[in-house]
Amino acid sequence: MSFIVAETKIKNLNLQEFPKTLPTKTKMMGEMWAQTGSVIASVMFVAAIFQQYLPRQLRYHVERYTQKLVSFVYPYIQISFDEFTNDFRKRSEIYSAIQSYLSAKSSTRAKRLKAHDVKDSKSVVLGMDDNEEVTDEFQGINLSWASRKRTKNQTSFSFYPQADEKNHYTLTFHRRHRDIITGSYLDYVIKEGKAISVSNRQRRLYINNPTQNWYSYRGTKWSHVVFEHPASLETLAMDPKKKEEIVNDLIMFRKGKEYYAKIGKPWKRGYLLYGPPGTGKSTMVAAMSNLMDYDVYDLELTTVKDNTELRKLLIDTPSKSILVIEDIDCSLDLTGQRKKKKEKDEEDKEENKDPVRKMREDQENTQSKVTLSGLLNFIDGIWSACGGERLIVFTTNYVEKLDPALIRRGRMDKHIELSYCCFEAFKVLARNYLDLDSHELFETIARLLSETNMTPADVAENLMPKSVIPDAESCLKNLIEALEAAKEKARMMAEDEAKSEAEEAAKLKRKNRRRKTSLLKSKRNVMEHKKEIRESIQEKMRMMGEMWAKLGSMVASVMFMSAVFRDFLPVQLRNHVELYIHKLANFFDPYVQITFDEHTNQFRKQSEVYSAIQSYLSIKFSARVRRLKAHDVKNSKSLVLSMDDNEEITDEFQGMTFSWASVKRMANQTSFSIYPQSNEKKCYKLTFHRRYRDIMTGSYLDHVIKEGKAISASNRQRKLYINNPAEDWNSYRGTKWSHIVFEHPATFESLAMDPKKKEEIINDLIKFSKGKEYYAKIGKAWKRGYLLYGPPGTGKSTMIAAISNLMNYDVYDLELTQVKDNTELRKLLIDTPSKSIIVIEDIDCSLDLTGQRKKKKDEEDKEEKDSVRKKREDQENKPSKVTLSGLLNVIDGIWSACGGERLIVFTTNYVDKLDPALIRRGRMDKHIELSYCCFEAFKVLARNYLGLETHELFERIGRLLGETDMTPADVAENLMPKSDVEDAESCLKNLIEALEAAKEEAKIKAEEEAQQKAEKDENLNAEKEA
């Protein structure tokens, strides 16, 4: 009781004293906040003085030694991974992989999450929110991942809007674990992240965008949607044996990475699907995609401007994809009708054509300049190895219209005919649609299917129940009625066709009489059409003038505002102040600095010296730097780590110490630009004592640049280049050549060729690579020309890849149709370095370089041509003015010595079409014929594909190869196993069957040609007698 009373008295006493102590505590708290504010104000004042008034050299040293002090105390290392790789906001693949990896970690550990509505993901993706941190563990090591956001002060105006926020991930770990983290851990994270991305996304269906949209803001070459087609090979209406053969072929391809590398062939396979409409070609493509889990790239050739853009689209398709060209016979003029010299009667017929119709046809033909040669090189040339693990599928309703070179083995490896519905296909449809395996009406349906043609699509439509209560028997009866109606319709159509042929002949005579009358009317229509065009052009010019006036007004406003907000300090005074401050600082500071900027001009072209220094520092000192930055370098074999911004390291050379720093400057200026501009300017700064100036500017810098270039060369992969159109050369970051990594597996060991001939070529190439002094001694440019000629499928493109891999040279694929004139051709040559191979594939198809030089015209050629036809011919000749003389001077004239150590390779299927001056010795020094497969070449293929050195069937195959012509590509296709159970002997038997079939086909063709010749001679004799 006494305890309770005492406690009550104490409480009352505290309550009485509280009002007295409250003002005192409030006063103390106020004084404390006042002191804190004073300290903060002092710090801000000192920081402002330090930033604005302290000399730059002194400020640099203070910051430098402050960082060294922090680095000495702080034992942790940081690596930054930026979200975007350039000013065009291309997302880094490494950043995406890390985001996927951390999404799995952060969803269970992070307190603050951010939901991402990813379009192609199967579910909502959860990731770390900004400034959130999670921990990870690897081999007993604890690591920390943080999501950061930087805000930049964007002061430039651009037609391409730029985000003010830059996201990046930061990885922090103890410095004792540097080797494990930069080695195995980062590779593990990227691999796991990519696997999570693939498992979480859905398949996609892509379509190529028009070229004018590629370089717009965030423009891409392909647009896509989620691909959710339900087709599978199980539900496909097809002969089960044929279906099983296709499934085995696809599975063998998917497992064949090492096998394709062993045989020296790109990991790609072509499928030709042909047959009447409605037979399931598109459904087959969808079923292949679902079986292989590949994305589908639907290539619309009519929107592709030329061969160069076709290659760029191929570059932009990744591995694990199906590239589809549907109805290829309708896409472009690729039906094998190569350009020939016109006969006189054909010219007369062309002149009598309707001019308006001819103008419309010319406009249609100028939409796309993709050639047969360009498409052939696209699917089976040196570009076909880009990406790997790719299926190329052509579909057509009229296979006989396609050029044999387009669908030969090696390009379209497997030909799949999807024809009218057979009984086996009907049974699949009956099981799918009606759940029937047998029925009494099946026999009637089988008989009707053999008597008439009906596509699987029509059969399926008749089998589909049309009411809520399904009745299988009524559906079968509907099909029987449809088959009988189709049979009757086919009979009536045959009768009608006979009548229509007779009527057509009569109509043709009447049409010829009316043509002369319509010609006069069409000429008047042309004049009216030209008048409309002139009026339209005038209206567009007026609108363009108004647009430029508004643009000029806007630019003037921007310039006026920039002038208003400038500093008011006179320029002369400001310059004098800065000059004397620098002099005063230099008097006390004994150190010299050299700055190496990242970009050399306003087009943001990276300096070669900067790149060499970056490679030198990244390899030499990545083990010492505390803060690193990861670079997603496209052509590098591994992840590249370098110093982060404002990081510093020291280097030693001949006992002297040099300091390197990575610096980022912010350019605070208001600018107007069509292209995206960054306010960040990066550079490396080299600092050294002035007593070392001579050694540094002499041997040390040469040492750094030489070492850096050697490191870059050892770390990079070979490249395959294609020339860009001339109008893109001077655009933002424009270059004359675009490139990708060249990963073709071909080698001389795997090349199907006579071993003696192969050895001769290898010796010639090795001798050339060692011949610098020899070529200088004989006074000849250090270059060598190779002419590769032979039928399609004999390995010309594979030979180029083998030469590149042997010599370790980059390949420059020169597309002559993209070169405007001889001057541009010389500029392209200047821009190709040494240790390169310049390739012109199918040179007989590239331009008019076939030796038909200009001759004196006949009198009848001097007659005035129709104006519309003349205009068309001028437009056709306008794209390229490269002449035979210009090409000769480039490969063997005074320009041929530019660069040195260069191979020039021409390929052609028709060597007899080329001008002798183009392929003479000294230009094309070595002529290599790649002909049909001989027995020695077959033995190389048997060793590559089947691992066989000899077999009892070899003798028979040798005899057949001596009796018939078959390309190495066809032989290789027959030797390739199509399933896991197919052995070497069955592959050899397949080849024997194919050789015997080819022999018989050649015999029948020869008999038909002999018969046609005899009939032609007989008709000529009859005409002479008449």
Automatic annotation (TrEMBL):
Give start-end positions of Basic and acidic residues composition bias. Answer: 350-363, 864-877
List the catalysed reactions.
ATP + H2O = ADP + phosphate + H(+)
A Pfam family per the record: AAA_lid_At3g28540
What keywords would UniProt list here? ATP-binding, Coiled coil, Hydrolase, Magnesium, Nucleotide-binding
Where does the AAA+ ATPase domain start and stop, copy by copy? 267-422, 782-934
Q: Which GO terms describe its molecular function?
A: ATP binding; ATP hydrolysis activity
Q: Which Gene3D superfamilies match?
A: 6.10.280.40, P-loop containing nucleotide triphosphate hydrolases (3.40.50.300)
User: Hey, which family's this protein in?
Assistant: Belongs to the AAA ATPase family. BCS1 subfamily.
Which sequence ranges form a coiled-coil region, renumbered to this chain? 469-511
Q: Quick one: signal sequence residues?
A: none
The record's Gene Ontology biological-process terms are: response to stress
Protein name as it appears in the record: AAA+ ATPase domain-containing protein
Q: Which PANTHER family match?
A: BCS1 AAA-TYPE ATPASE
What PROSITE patterns has UniProt attached to this entry? AAA
| Taxonomic superkingdom | Eukaryota
- Quote the InterPro entries the UniProt record gives: AAA+_ATPase, AAA_N_dom, At3g28540-like_C, ATPase_AAA_core, ATPase_AAA_CS, Mitochondrial_chaperone_BCS1, P-loop_NTPase
Q: Where is this region: Disordered?
A: 339-365, 854-877, 1003-1026
**Cofactors (names):** Mg(2+)
